[in-house]
Amino acid sequence: DGRHFLTAVLFPRMRVDNGISVWEALSGAKVTEFDVEELYEVQWRPEPFNSLRFLDVGYDEVERAATGLAKSIVGGTAREKKQAYRPPKARGAEGSSTVAAMMRG
Question: Which residue in 5, 16, 21, 87 has a CA-CA distance of 20 to 30 Å to 56?
Answer without folding.
Answer: 21
